[in-house]
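Batch manifest line 453
LIGAND: C2G
JOB: complex structure
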Amino acid sequence: MRGMITVITYGTYDMLHKGHINLLKRAKALGDYLIVGVTDENYDRSRGKLNVSESTKKRMKAVEALDFVDKVIVETHKGQKAEDMVKYDVDIFAIGDDWIGAFDYLNEYTHVEYLPRTEGISSTQLRKEHFSKIKLGLVGLGRDTEAFIEEAQNVSSIKINRIYAKDFLAVKAFTKDNELIKYGHDNYEDFLDTSIQAVYIDTVLDRHYHLIKAALEADKHVLCENPIALGKEELKELLHIAKKRKLILLPAVKTAFLPAFNQMLKVLEEGDIGEIREVRATRTSLYREKNYPDTFIAQGATNILSSYPSLLVKKVLGKHKSIDFFDQEENGYDISNLIITRHKGGAVGVSRVATGAKSEGDAVISGSKGYIYIPAPWWLTKSFSIRFEDEHKTQEYKYEFAGSGLRYMIAEFASLIQRNKSTSKMLTPTDIVEINRIPLEYDEFKKLRKKES
Ligand code: C2G
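JOB STATUS: finished
ARTIFACT:
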């Protein structure tokens, strides 16, 4: 008597359809026990699938409900297939023939079978039929606007069709001959009074609060450059309005949504580097605006840049218990700041930002047994390594990273809207408050210093 034959297959299974089911049945027919690996959304985004409409949980449930499927697992990273072949003692790896050749390398571990696909049906087509596009309007003509438009082209559930900016002539020049963004406004109320469901705000910081508030009150979801507010009360108020109205209010801290960044956090949870003692991250930029006064510089390095290092510090160490600033000022603006925070258990966060000094933009998470190193620019995470005193034990991790990295954030924003979710796991309301707290506390620190001198 032959032993039980284990078959494994993988897929996203978004809006589970006949094509998926046929394939799964064909896979099961090859053996006795069928394991199905469902891709999680972070992994899907890392392999360029930005438009999955259902959550990992929902897709897994749909596959679990099929009575001929014996086990459902989640697929989170590229090297997992080979690991699974060994872990589950797999006899056959089956996959649709649209992948022909792509998984031949797995023949080293198991037998690879490419099975015929079902013609004429796909998740892409079903999504098109079931969902209408989310209309998004741009607020401001900031330095990220062009990149944002370009990156959003990869998120098929979003359509950008209007722009608002104070400067009428600039808006006119922008929309003239623009294939995508045909409608320009210099009146914010009129702009909000259109069929847009969401806005992306990229203006000088002190306008954020009013622009966000008006957008939320007009029932629009908001994605806004950080900090979203320059006062504690204002921040509270905005989060409160968003919550009450079940709207999304997300700061545009792109790092939080990068596949490699999230994978790094997952690896960290496995605990190989021991107890975390310190998180150190640097972000400097010598960007200069052509116009005078240069609003980039004038808004201060802490306001403009601290959200990145403080995101890493918050994600790894949680809320801070105390904070200290070592800043350098020029013409009344902070051109650099070394922000030191203390956290639970005595762990220390070191966030360094500068607009008037250039430094290595890397990050290190130090533990009692080893450390994680993220090379510059760490906030556009593409790779990281886990290192120990014994350098032979180094493990390297590398991930796909497309475009300027904004597409992952836009994809998350769009999928939250599509799934009727008002908060993101990648950047939670607590994360938002903690990140926004840094510039606010720096402001208090400066006021106190002035008073004392
Ligand atoms: N499929 C099919 N017929 C269709 C559509 C899909 O047979 N009309 C098959 C695919 O070939 C695949 C499975 O259904 O074997 C799941 O398809 P997707 O959900 O599109 O997942 P995919 O991106 O192919 O995932 O690790 C993930 C895998 O590498 C593949």
